[in-house]
Design a protein that fits this description.
2 copies of one chain form a homodimer. Helices cover 71% and strands 0% of the residues of chain A. With 232 residues, the first copy, chain A, is mostly helical.
Chain lengths: 232, 232
Amino acid sequence: MNKYIYRIIERSCYYMHMRKGQQTRSAILEQALAVASRTGLAGLTIGSLAERSGLSKSGLFAHFGSKEGLQLAVIQGVRDLYSRLVFQPAMQQQPGLPRLRAIMQNWLEWTAGANLPGGCIMTAAAHEFDDNPGAVRELVSQSLRELRKTLVRSVRLAVDAGQLRADTDAEQLAFEICSLYFGAQLDARLFADPRAGERALLAFENLLERHGGGAPAQASGRTLPAHASAAH
Amino acid sequence: MNKYIYRIIERSCYYMHMRKGQQTRSAILEQALAVASRTGLAGLTIGSLAERSGLSKSGLFAHFGSKEGLQLAVIQGVRDLYSRLVFQPAMQQQPGLPRLRAIMQNWLEWTAGANLPGGCIMTAAAHEFDDNPGAVRELVSQSLRELRKTLVRSVRLAVDAGQLRADTDAEQLAFEICSLYFGAQLDARLFADPRAGERALLAFENLLERHGGGAPAQASGRTLPAHASAAH
C-alpha cells in the first residue's frame, strides 16, 4: 500500500474512532442527564452512573476523568439541550414580544421535550451548589446569568420595537419572569399541580400587559400542550 | 425514705432529665439546621453531623434514631422557626393587606434572623426530595402547602376587607407571591445580588396594585434592612 493511501485510511479510521467515541459519549451523557434529573447533580457520581447505566466505572472515568468532570459535562449537556429546545426555536420569531413569548412558552415545556423525567437539572443544581464554591457552581451560575441576560435583551428589543413601554425596567421584568418559571417548576414537581404552567403563563401575560404589551395576536385559544402544563 | 417522697424525687429527677434531654436536643437541632442550610438536607446524615458538631454518632442516634429521623426533625425545626419569625409577628398586624405585607417582608428576611447561613432549607429540600418519595418529601410538601394556604387565606381576607378587588384570584396571586420568594432566593444565593429582596418587594407591591391594593399607608420610604435585602 503506498504511503498516501495509507494516510487516507489512517485518517479515516481516526475520524471513525472519534465519531464512535463521540457517539458513546453522547449516549452516556443522555443517561447521565436522566439520572441527574432524578437524583440531583450532587448525587451523580461515576459510581452511581455506572450502577444505573451498566457501564464500567473505568470506562466512565476514561470519558469524564472525575465526578466533577461528569457534573460539568452534564451541565454543558443541559445548556446545549436548552439552547436547542428553547432559544433556537424562539429565534425564528420576530425580535421583541413574539420572541419573548416563544422563550417563555418553550421554557415551560422544555424538560418534557428534553426527556428529563425529574425536572430541570439547572434549577436543582443552583440550590445544591449555591454554597459549594468550585467549577460546577461557576458553570451553573454563568449559565443562569446568560439566560437572564438573554431575557433582558429580549425585553429591551420589545421596548425598542414600541411593544413595551419605554420606562420598562428590563432587569426587573426579567427577574419576575424567571421567578415565575421557578414557581411553576416547584408547583409541578412537588405538588404535581397540572395548572402550574398555565398559572405561570397567565402571570407572564399580565406582566407584559402591565408594561404595555397587549394580548398576543396569534394566541387566541392557544394553550400549553398537556405534557407542558405541568411545567416539568 | 418513705415511698411517697421517693416517688416525688423520682418524678422530679425524671422531669429534670427530660428537660436536660430537650435542651440537648434543641442545641443539636440548631447545629443540624445550620449544617443542612449549607449542605442541603439530603447531604445531612448522622455521620456528617457528628463530624461537624463533635458529638458522638451513638448520641445522635439516641436522639434521632436514623438519618430520616434527623431530616424530619430538621424540617420540623424549620417549620417552628418559620412560624416564630414569619407568621407569629405578622398575626399582630390587622388581617388583610397589612398582614399580607408583613408576611412577605418577614419571609424575605427570615433566614437571616434564623441564623441559616446557607439560605432556606425548605426550598432547597423541595428540589432535593421532589423525586424521592417518603416521609421527608411528604413533610416538605405538606409544609409548603400550608404556607400556600395561609397566603391564600390572607389574600381572601384582604378581598373581604375591600382592600383587593372582588375578582382577585387568590390562588393565582398566592402562586405569584411564592414565585417571587423563590426568585429572590436564587438571585441572592447564586448571584449574591444585594437587590434581590428589593426586587421581590417591588414586584409584590406591583402585584397588589394590579389587584386594587394601593401603596401601604405606613410604607413611605420603608426599605428592607441591609441583612434582608439579600433575601437569604
